[in-house]
Structure formats: structure tokens, C-alpha cells
Amino acid sequence: MATQKSFREVELPEQKPQDDGTLFPAVLSPNTTATEVSAFEDVIRTHKPWLESLLLKRGAILFRGFPVVSPSDFNSVVKAFDFPELSYSGGVAPRTQVVDRVYTANESPLDQAIPFHHEMAYLPNPPTKLFFFCEEEPRIGGETPIVLSHILYEKMKEKHPEFIVKMEEHGLKYIKIAGDDDNPSSYTGTGWKSTYKTDDKNIAEERAAKQGTKLEWMENSVKIILGPFPAIRVDEMSGRKTWFNSLAVSYCGPATEKTGNQNTSVELGNGDSVGDEVVEDLLKVMEEECAAIPWKKGDVLLVNNLTVLHSRRPLIKPPRRILASLCE
Question: How many domains does the chain have?
């Protein structure tokens, strides 16, 4: 295959073996030494159909050893794939535009963990693909673990079949209390002005309504009610059911010690609560089934957001700078 002349698939100890004999995620390195990012861009354009098919089959691709050094280099790589850009509107994570299609990853304190989630699963039109780029690699910690969504669904259905039936029937409703301004201490800390890119309450309500979101104004804050949205989806390519929701990242209760995220809650679409024992088991399964590959400077991680969840482990020894880009 011509593609083999440009890429070689490598194995890392942190990858997860799958039932079909493949490893998750796929890890690709260059077959030849290249010093310019333009060479990587050319390879991407030439082999885009093959890379897309690999992404659909494996869920995520880590590109390691390519000459991607700066945010501008990363932006060029993202643009080479030519996926439509997704505007970050309605998102709850604090982030800043760096250059063109490149943004910071979640800007909350790096010593905080961020639970597994599909990006913007609390909105009707989440991104289908995510790019991450390691500009500064962590010394210790700070990994971005990923896990296949269909495996979570299968494991949780075994453990909590009655709850899964309710999730499939009613979906999930997410609730967030947001102030006027951003709260940098929380990974869901965007204020309503940043979330809806306006300081006009009427415009904010209009933009929220387009996303299936209701705003209830309170003194010095607003209650943002998202959904209910489907919590279990069917992947069109594989026909498998996926755990497509933000339950773990929105839950706030005794099953987890989330100190930086006291402004969110989650419930079933019919108003029933989510049992703490469900979340306890969910968090265990996520950790058991995830792949957590330590970042290396220059790494680019491409994730199928429809079939793979991601998270963030606490940074133990800085520095760490991970950038991101979202695609429709």
C-alpha cells in the first residue's frame, strides 16, 4: 500500500488491545525524516481517505515524530485535513483562541483532573472530530486518557441494565449555574457572557434556545438548563451503541471528589436522579478501559468524538501546554 511509504504504525505499552487484534489508539510515525511541517501536510492531503478510514476503524490516531513545533504548525496540520471548523459556542470549558483554528485546551488549574466526556455532548450538534497538540510535554502526569464509548456502554449495561434502559428512554438533562464572568478555578467555569459571546441577556437567550437550552436568570447568575439530550447513541458506521453523554463530567456528588466543579449537576430527562453507585461504577470502568499515553512534544492526537471519550489527568510536574481544535 502506498500509505506504508509515508507512515509506519508503532506500538506503545499504553495502547489497549481490542477483540479484533488491533490496538487502541492507532499510533503513526513517519517512515522518512522530515524537517518541515509542509511535508507532513502533503502526506495528510495525499492519504486523507486512508487516514479517515483508519480513524473510523480505530477511534483515534496519535501522530508522533512529525515536525510539528508551534501553534502555527498545528494549525497548518488541522487545515491540511480540511475538516469543517466548529465554532466554540455554548461550550462550558474556559479556553482562548491562540491562532486561527487553534485554541487552548481547558484552562482550569492543571492539578485538577477532568472526567471522561464526549466534547460538547450536552449540545445538539457536538464536534465530530477533535485535534490535540502537545506544545510542551509534561514531566509527570497531565495525560489525556481516551476510551472507546461502545465499550463503556456494554460494561455499564452489564452492571446497571435497568438504569441504562432509563437513560435510553429519557436521556440526560444537564444544569449549570454560571455567573457573569469566567471562573478560572473550574473546568466548567465559563460565565454566560463568554458562553454565548454577548453581554446582552436577550441575545444570550436567543442563542441558547437555538441549542435546545433554557436560561433562568437569578441574582448575579443564571441557571443554564441543557436538554434533555440522548445519552446513548448508535454509531452509524459500526451500528454499535455508544455512551454518548457528559454524565461523569457534570455529576457532582459523593461518588467523586470534584473540588473544582461545584456549579453543575445532571439528572435523567424525566427528572429522576442519577444514583451515586452508577457513577462510582462508571468511573471505575472508564479507568480500567482507557488508554493513557504520556504526551511527547510535537504529538498530534486526532479523536473521533462520536465514538471516543477523553479526559485529563492531574499534572504532577509542569510544564504542560496542550492545544486543541474542534471540527464539525
Answer: 2
